[in-house]
Specification:
Elements: H1 4-11, E1 15-21, E2 34-39, H2 45-52, E3 71-76, E4 82-86, H3 97-113, E5 117-125, H4 132-143, E6 148-153, H5 160-174, E7 185-186, H6 195-207
Parallel strand pairs: 2-4, 2-5, 5-6, 6-7
Antiparallel strand pairs: 1-3, 3-4
Helix pairs in contact: 1-6
């Protein structure tokens, strides 16, 4: 595991927005290692990415769930060490059926076909736990044999006893999913809780 100074230097260094890809033909060249973040709309994905790279507004959250339907890419490091893919949120109730289908095709094709994708992180809101849409997304990853790790977000929003309970529920659910990484990350973007641990795991992942 890298020391805290090394992690801060890497994740607080140069980070730049590369591009948005509304379709596979707009994907950036797959010439560097990538990690991807997925989760329900309003799960705190943008806040977590911003906390990881020590920025306030790099990844922007939409006020309208389901509005962002593009893959957003960010380059970390100079020269580039790895790339972050911020995936559009799922589980939005008000989006048209055609929009949902387009999202599913875009995300599924990206995840299945991206050779440089090292790990997908699936975010779960500590206040709500797993929803059926989370399980559906995880099944899609299982079926495609795409390795992923669960990240619990907004851990500061609930009591410690509730956090222990939700963590146990998440661990129990993971045993039902073949592609899930056995360990989970517990984070708070606002309080920076678990951020260094997640940074260390990301760095370890891209180096192996």
């Amino acid at each position: 595991m890298s020391d805290k100074n090394t992690l801060n230097k890497i994740f607080s260094g140069p980070v730049t927005f590369l591009k948005s890809a509304p379709d596979l033909k707009f994907l950036p060249d797959g010439n560097v290692m990538e990690i991807a973040f997925a989760g329900r709309s309003n799960v705190g994905k943008s806040s977590l990415i911003n906390a990881l790279v020590n920025r306030n507004g790099l990844a922007r959250a939409s006020n309208t769930p389901g509005r962002t339907q593009e893959l957003n890419f960010f380059d970390v490091g100079s020269p580039i060490l790895f790339r972050i893919c911020d995936m559009p949120g799922y589980g939005f109730a008000k989006a048209p059926v055609a929009t949902v289908q387009k999202w599913r095709h875009l995300v599924n094709d990206y995840l299945r076909g991206r050779q440089k994708l090292k790990r997908t992180f699936v975010l779960i809101d500590a206040r709500h736990g797993f929803k059926d849409v989370d399980r559906d997304f995880m099944k899609m990853l299982d079926d495609a044999a795409i390795s992923y790790r669960i990240v619990i977000t907004k851990a500061d929003k609930i009591k410690n006893s509730e956090l222990v309970k939700i963590s146990e529920e998440v661990q129990a659910e993971l045993r039902k999913h073949s592609a899930a990484y056995p360990e989970i990350s517990i984070t708070s973007a606002e309080k920076k809780g678990g951020i260094d641990e997640l940074r260390a795991f990301i760095l370890e992942t891209i180096e192996t």
